């Protein structure tokens, strides 16, 4: 696993959102975008993380930041997740984990004695020029939004 670093060019991608519509990173050209990768919709940690972003969307937007959540879940599951939790940002489906691999956050994980490949929970703030401005990889699901807002306000 070799995650992108600040200063790297963000890979361009196109993925289906929770409604099955294609979303391209180029749709956000000239804007800052927080791309956050999470393992699985509707699990406790991912729900806490998503709701933290939802509840702080006004502050994120006023800092000029759009939010995209990416997991390997199917669009139908993302739609149920967004509806159930009243999420106010776009969720994208990377079923074949190609985008996860391009960002360098797909790799070996261990959970309850089992080893498997999966998403390492990481967020990337993409600058208006398409480069990685900041990588967030040291947070808890409950303080993810605080760490990002603290960075944006510093």
Automatic annotation (TrEMBL):
One GO BP: cellular response to oxidative stress
Keywords (A to Z) from UniProt: Antioxidant, Disulfide bond, Oxidoreductase, Peroxidase, Redox-active center
Assigned EC number: 1.11.1.24
GO cellular component: cytoplasm
The reaction(s) this protein catalyses: a hydroperoxide + [thioredoxin]-dithiol = an alcohol + [thioredoxin]-disulfide + H2O
Organism, as annotated: Tatumella ptyseos ATCC 33301
Subunit and partners: Monomer.
Residue span, Thioredoxin domain: 4-154
CDD domains associated with the record: PRX_BCP
PROSITE patterns in UniProt: THIOREDOXIN_2 (PS51352)
Name of this protein: thioredoxin-dependent peroxiredoxin
Function summary: Thiol-specific peroxidase that catalyzes the reduction of hydrogen peroxide and organic hydroperoxides to water and alcohols, respectively. Plays a role in cell protection against oxidative stress by detoxifying peroxides and as sensor of hydrogen peroxide-mediated signaling events.
NCBIfam families tied to this protein: PRK09437.1
Molecular function as annotated in GO: thioredoxin peroxidase activity
Family, as annotated: Belongs to the peroxiredoxin family. BCP/PrxQ subfamily.
Domain of life: Bacteria
SUPFAM superfamilies in the cross-refs: Thioredoxin-like (SSF52833)
């Amino acid at each position: 696993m070799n995650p992108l670093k600040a200063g790297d060019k963000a890979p361009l991608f196109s993925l289906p959102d929770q409604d099955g519509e294609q979303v391209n990173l180029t749709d956000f050209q000239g804007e800052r975008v927080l791309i956050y990768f999470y393992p699985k919709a509707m699990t406790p940690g991912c729900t806490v993380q998503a709701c933290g972003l939802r509840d702080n969307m006004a502050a994120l937007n006023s800092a000029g930041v759009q939010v995209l959540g990416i997991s390997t879940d199917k669009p139908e599951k993302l739609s149920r997740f967004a509806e159930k939790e009243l999420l106010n940002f776009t969720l994208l489906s990377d079923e074949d984990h190609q985008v996860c691999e391009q960002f360098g956050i797909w790799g070996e994980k261990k959970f309850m004695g089992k080893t498997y490949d999966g998403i390492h929970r990481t967020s990337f703030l993409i600058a208006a020029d398409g480069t990685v401005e900041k990588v967030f990889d040291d947070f808890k699901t409950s303080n993810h939004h605080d760490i990002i807002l603290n960075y944006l306000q510093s």
